[in-house]
């Protein structure tokens, strides 16, 4: 064996602990669904194994806040919206972005029977109890909308019952569920933030700065395998859907195959950069700056949060 081959062998041996694979716990921000397909693929196709990682995907409870999960330190990495990460940094909890999947906003406001969401007055509008509403609340303040925000774990029941006038939704999840009710018509009564100057990135993978500094090697291996998972998912959507349905059934999520297929298609579309059309897996400085300005104006942040603060 030549000297170069020995170097490669020793390098590979050093990357994987002698006792076997390195345990790495990843926490998505919601229950099992196609929103997290790339991570399921990376686990099922052995991409994490090839990196020497024993990855546990630990889904949270619906009522458990992101801040509580991060403070508990139960996971090494967490998926969260960019705006949520910025709030944590502003609260003195330094987190760093190790992988950015979303390149566009999925956020929409959906009103009943085609009413213009921006024309509603004294409207009761649902936002999620666990978060994600930073940009909508700031937008409503900037546009001088007198929404009465109502927090709930799920927006669907209150909306269908007529207890609220409108609800926040993501274009890959609640929006499709609301279409199935017949109370919502595509193209009517839908306000898409991405089309009105509020196109801000959402899902990314973050670690606390301390956890990243402590085990940067495992973080980089997790990122490589996860990227492979998402790229494979984009190239093999049918097989990816089968993998998603396996996880949905395992966690007993009340959903259906059609909804998960629509979700997968939309999540993959949202991963394409609006300018290049490519899957870039990076934070955009312009979107970080826009989010920071908007949240400062809306009183959610006390101080500016820059892209440099969010990068390892």
CATH class wording of the largest domain: Alpha Beta
Radius of gyration: 20 Å
Total of helices: 14
CATH superfamily of the largest domain: Periplasmic binding protein-like II
Mean pLDDT: 90
Describe this structure in words.
This protein has 14 helices and 10 strands. With 312 residues, it is of the alpha/beta class. It has 2 domains: 20-104 and 201-310, Periplasmic binding protein-like II (D-Maltodextrin-Binding Protein, domain 2); 107-195, Periplasmic binding protein-like II (D-Maltodextrin-Binding Protein, domain 2, 3-Layer(aba) Sandwich), CATH 3.40.190.10. The strands form 2 sheets. The chain has a 5-stranded mixed beta sheet with strand order 2-1-3-10-4. β6, α6 (134-142) and β7 form a beta-alpha-beta unit. It is globular and about 60 Å long.
Write the layout of secondary structure elements.
Layout: H1 3-15, E1 22-27, H2 37-44, H3 47-50, E2 53-57, H4 66-72, E3 77-81, H5 82-90, E4 95-100, E5 107-111, E6 124-128, H6 134-142, E7 148-152, H7 156-160, E8 166-170, H8 174-181, E9 190-192, E10 203-208, H9 209-214, H10 216-235, H11 237-250, H12 257-270, H13 285-297, H14 307-310
Parallel strand pairs: 1-2, 1-3, 6-7, 6-8
Antiparallel strand pairs: 3-10, 4-10, 5-8, 5-9
């Amino acid at each position: 064996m030549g000297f170069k081959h020995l170097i490669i062998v020793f390098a590979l041996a050093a990357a994987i602990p002698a006792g076997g694979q390195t345990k790495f716990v990843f926490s998505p921000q919601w229950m099992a669904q196609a929103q997290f397909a790339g991570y399921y693929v990376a686990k099922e196709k052995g991409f994490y194994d090839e990196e020497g990682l024993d990855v546990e995907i630990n889904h949270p409870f619906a009522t458990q806040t992101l801040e509580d999960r991060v403070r508990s330190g139960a996971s090494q990495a967490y998926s969260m919206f960019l705006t949520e990460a910025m709030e944590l940094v502003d609260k003195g909890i330094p987190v760093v972005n190790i992988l950015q999947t979303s390149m566009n906003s999925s956020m929409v406001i959906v009103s009943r029977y085609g009413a213009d969401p921006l024309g509603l007055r004294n409207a009761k509008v649902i936002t999620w109890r666990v978060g994600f509403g930073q940009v909508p609340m700031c937008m409503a303040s900037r546009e001088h909308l007198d929404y009465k925000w109502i927090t709930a774990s799920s927006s669907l029941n209150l909306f269908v019952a007529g207890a609220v006038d409108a609800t926040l939704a993501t274009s890959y999840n609640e929006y499709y569920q609301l279409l199935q009710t017949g109370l919502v018509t595509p193209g009517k009564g839908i306000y898409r933030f991405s089309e009105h100057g509020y196109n801000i990135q959402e899902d990314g993978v973050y670690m606390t700065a301390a956890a990243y500094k402590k085990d940067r090697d495992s973080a980089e291996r997790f990122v490589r395998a996860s990227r492979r998972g998402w790229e494979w998912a984009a190239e093999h959507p049918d097989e990816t859907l089968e993998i998603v349905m396996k996880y949905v059934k395992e966690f007993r999520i009340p959903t259906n195959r059609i909804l998960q297929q629509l979700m997968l298609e939309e999540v993959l579309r949202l991963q394409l950069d609006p300018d290049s059309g490519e899957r870039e897996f990076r934070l955009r400085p312009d979107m970080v700056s826009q989010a920071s300005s908007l949240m400062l104006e809306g009183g959610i942040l006390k101080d500016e949060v820059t892209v440099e603060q969010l990068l390892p």
